[in-house]
Write a structure and sequence with these properties.
about 150 residues, mainly alpha
Length: about 150
Amino acid sequence: MNSDTPSTPAMTDMPRRWPHGILGAIGRGLRGKCPACGEGRLFRAYLKVADNCPACGEELHHHRADDFPAYLVIIITGHILVPIVLAVETEIVPPIWLSVTLWPTLAFATALALLQPVKGAVVAVQWFGGLHGFEAARNARQAAAR
């Protein structure tokens, strides 16, 4: 246990509600919840993953998301905004000052809105697959399923 996370009897007595497959884990990660129990917060700050789940005590410090969430956010933001920009710029033709102000602001806001959920999904995929130190979590989940 981490010294930041209070050790309570509820953490050990709480029955685990494992996710239903990888999509369940990804859904929990997208919502910023612990991939193991779906209750505790995955993040302790905007992009800082908690060392342990405050609800179930699952160790989360193993993750190695690195730059992958940012790459995914760039791709998603581009796929959302490029068709909109092309449609607006060819059909409506707004003044240049509006285009120069609107599109970068919209891209920045979209990227900020997507970054935390995408990082949560990446951490959840790593947790579900037993990658980068999450082997014990995967083994415990598989043993409970037997």
